[in-house]
Predict the structure.
Amino acid sequence: MKADLAEIVADVCSSVEGQIGSGRVADYIPALSRVDPRKFGIAIMTCDGETVCAGDAEEPFSIQSVSKVFTLTLALERVGAPLWDRVGREPTGSAFNSIVQLEHEAGIPRNPLVNAGALVVTDTLLDGKNPSQAINDIVAFLRLRADDPAVRVDAEVAQSESETGDRNASLAHFMRSFGNLNGEVDDVLSVYFQQCAIEMSCRQLARAGLYLAHAGSDPISDEQIVSEARTRRINAIMMSCGHYDASGDFAFHVGLPGKSGVGGGILAIAPRRASIAVWSPGLNDVGNSLVGSLALERLSALTGWSVF
Ligand code: GLU
C-alpha cells in the first residue's frame, strides 16, 4: 500500500505541475496577498496510520475557513442539536460572505461553513468564556488533533483580517439585530478572525482531520472525538456546503467531503480511508484553491476514493 499511495501522490504532483502558480492569491486580506503563489503541498494520512507527503507539505499556511470544520465539531459537542435552530444545513449558492439571504431568512445563516454561519458557531464557543479563553480552546483542540503543540495563530494575519473585516462585522451586527448572536460583536469577530488566522501545514491539517475519516475516533490515539452519527453529518455538510457556491462542482469532480479556505488550503475526507490536506494559494474565481482542487480530482480518480 505504501508504495502505491506514494506512487499515486507522485502522479498527482506531476499532473498539476504545469498549473502551479495559476489562480489568484486572496488579496482582500492584505497579509495573505504576500504568500508565494507557487507553493504546493499535499499530505495524506490514512486510517491505518500511513502518511504520504509531497511538495510544501511541512510549510504552515493560513487555514482560514478550514477552521470552520473544527469549530463546528466543537460547537456540536458543546450545544448539540439545538445548534440547528440557529444555523441551517443548506448550500447557499452565494458567495462565502454574502449578506443577501440573511435578510430573507431572518438572520439564520444557511449553513455553518459560510461566514455568517461560522460566526454563529463561534458565538456558541464564546458562551460563558472570554475571547482569549474561546480562541485558546480552539487552538488547544487543533493542537491535540494535529498531535503538534506548534499549531498557533498568526497574529499578523488576524490583525490584517480585523482591519479589513467590515463585511464580517456587518454580518455579525445583522444577525445580532435578529437575536441570533448572543455575544458582543467585537468579541465574536475577534475569536473568528483568530481562528481563521491559525496556521498549519498540510501534514498537521491532514492529521487533525483524521477523526472525520474514521467515524469520529482518532485511529492513532483511539480516542472518540465525536460520535459516528455526528461525524457523518459533519461530512455531509462539508460535501454540500464546503466549497462556497462551487460545492456542487467539487462534489462532481472530486466526490469527497471537503472544506476550502481562502489561504488556498483544502481538507478533504475519504470516509474510512484517509484525511487529505492540499495547499496552493492561487484561487479560482469562486475562492477555492485552483491547483488544490485539480490535485484532489486526480487523487480521487486514481484512488477511487470518491464516496459516489
Ligand atoms: N477569514 C476569511 C473571511 O472571513 C475566511 C474566508 C474563507 O476562507 O472562506 O473573510
